[in-house]
Design goal:
- The chain is an alpha/beta fold.
- The chain has a single domain (about 1-230), classed as Alpha-Beta Complex (Spore Coat Polysaccharide Biosynthesis Protein SpsA, Chain A), CATH 3.90.550.10.
- It contains seven helices and 13 strands.
- The chain has helices at about 35-45, 60-65, 85-90, 95-100, 115-125, 195-205, 225-230; strands at about 1-5, 25-30, 30, 50-55, 75-80, 105, 110-115, 130-135, 145-150, 155-160, 170-175, 205-210, 215-220.
- A seven-stranded mixed sheet has the order 5-4-1-6-11-8-12. Strands 2-3 form a two-stranded antiparallel sheet. A two-stranded antiparallel sheet has the order 7-13.
- It starts with a strand and ends with a helix.
């Protein structure tokens, strides 16, 4: 199984830091977030990782690769978006690289540690097109909160609900089958997974979700959360 790290965001909530450095390259414990994610995958036997970055940050990522050469495990490939295509849009260009197996996608601005093997086993057993990882948060209102039935299927996808039905949120980490590429209109250029893909999979009864407990998860998307990660990770 291969993994993809989404690293093309503008990082507006982390400004002014992200005027100078792409969000996935900001450090936690003296090491870029990207390194932590790649090492997480490597610990769980996933060595082939793709990074989707903005073409405007190409020089930053080349410097990162040079600086950490020999210390980053596995086989890393960086793909560059000429223009923003959303969290799902560019994935369609990686079909050949991905092959015929399920693949993992993760946001590039979060630190994660949990039993990935258990999530993969759950995905295989559910046989859904998509499987979402869920982590528990004290306040879930700022995140996607799936409604999940007793069989582990998502029956409703709520994005930033004022009154969340649970404290288990979308962890920005999911497994997809290649069949997911048939869900979206190929002529739609800008495609967001949470808004354009997951709701359709819910309608098809093809989206599952697993609650990860125990799990460590830190969103580093703004200055306050980034500081919390630096202090606690």
């Amino acid at each position: 199984m291969k993994a993809i790290i989404l690293a093309g965001g503008a990082g507006t909530r982390l400004r002014p830091v992200t005027y100078e450095i792409p969000k996935p390259l900001v450090p936690v414990k003296k090491k870029p977030i990207l390194n932590h994610l790649i090492e997480f995958f490597n610990r769980h036997g996933i060595s082939e990782v793709a990074i989707i970055a903005s073409k405007g940050h190409e020089e930053d990522f080349k410097r990162w690769q040079k600086a950490w050469a020999g210390e980053i495990p596995g086989e890393i490939t960086v793909f560059y978006e000429e223009k923003p295509e959303g969290t799902f849009g560019y994935l369609r260009k990686l079909k050949e690289w991905l092959g015929n197996d399920s693949f993992i996608v993760t946001n590039g601005d979060e630190l994660k540690e949990f039993d990935l093997s258990a999530l993969v086993d759950f995905h295989r057993a559910q046989d859904s097109v998509g499987t979402v990882a869920l982590v528990q948060m004290e306040d879930a209102r700022a995140y996607g909160v799936p409604v999940v039935n007793n069989e582990g299927r998502v029956t409703e996808w709520l994005e930033k609900p004022e009154h969340p039905p649970s404290n288990f949120i979308h962890a920005g980490f999911y497994i997809l089958k290649p069949e997911v590429f048939d869900v979206v209109d190929p002529l739609q250029e800008f495609v967001m997974t949470e808004k354009d893909v997951f709701p359709k999979l819910v309608e098809m009864k093809q989206l599952s979700a697993m609650r990860l407990d125990p799990a460590r998860w830190y969103d580093c998307g703004n200055l306050e959360r980034w500081e919390k990660a630096m202090l606690e990770w």
